[in-house]
User: Fold this.
Amino acid sequence: MKRALKVLSIALAAMACSSQTPAYAAEGPHAGADSVRVATFLNALARTDPVICDLIGDQLGNFWFGGQPARLGRFDDAANVQGAKDSLAGTITDPRALSLLVATLGTDNQCVRRVAAKMLGQSAIAAKALNDLLDNASPRIRESAAYAAGVGERHETRAALERRLADTAAGVGAMAAWALGEMEDPAAAPAIQNAVLHSTSPRVRLAAVWALGKYEDASYAKDVLPFLRDQDPVMRATAAEALGQMKGPRVGAALVGLLTDRNDAVRLAAVSALSDMEEHSAVGPLEGLLINDSDPDVRRESASALGNLSLPRSLEPLARALGDPDVEVQREAADAIESLDDVTKAPAALVRATTSTDVELRRNATKALAHIGDVATVQALADRLSDADKEVRLAAVEGLGEMNVASVIPALTRALNDRDPEVRRAAAEALGKTQDN
Assistant:
């Protein structure tokens, strides 16, 4: 830590002594920051709250370059720092900045170390230099280099990362597995498979199971299936996620069995995986979870999965879920009903949901009602034409337009005077279609 902070201090001193205005970046629209900007940034992170540092580290690079040219939505007295922000997310090429990032990989502050590694992965560092860092004597530096390689998806480091899977430091091996998973290079799959089967480190096995799932290859399912019975719930959930990506003939039944796991996160992962697989044998158990599970996230994900599977038999449990104590479950249930096939009669609970005080639930319920097209709900949809929310009114208009019955004409005629032009256009189109038929 002291060495890294000393490097930062030297860089900051150089900035203070310079007679020139410090540049934020080299030339180019997406050019990276120079050494002064990097030093300023890392020094600030080293001195801030760890939570703030971690938040910044997570978001670094997750924004559009350039921002809003007119700077609308910014305070009038705010400095224009968009160039500096862009430079920190750009490709760093300044040799001094690269040296500073490398020097920071061994700092005691794990957040600053991670940010430096992330920036290094997005930099123009030479493949040989990154490979050398992966073979560094310090486990901390090897781990940081593996993270950089994964962030940058540097395929030229694959061989070095494969060697690190057997590293004596578990953190290095786990990060190497993560990095290889990020790259999704098929040539690395056998090495990851070997780590799944033979690593003595639980953390390395966990990362390797996750990485193997990234290949979406059913031939590896047999290697991951045993981990559904692991004592560690994190491993069980990770294995479920990986198997959902792999699919395979035995996977569905094994994941259905996991729906009774005592751990909420494991059940949630199993539900999500079965949804991704579109496993129809899971419909009954998923309907049971939707109604009876104690965890609202599991119930919400079960509703989403049933919508994805689209079987009309799920209408009744989804309608019951519209009365769930958790509004997010209600919203997801209404959204799922819209996705069901061959439903022609709208349940009373769905009609009631169109009058909810929750605007998102009203939107989802109205869209579902419109999708079903039950002529018995003409008045319910007509009532939504006076809703305060434009999306609700638009869904109601579109639903009425699809019914092709004369009883919708008065409501659609009224919608021609809606305050929103999009709703008025939709009403005119719907009215024309109805009158033509």
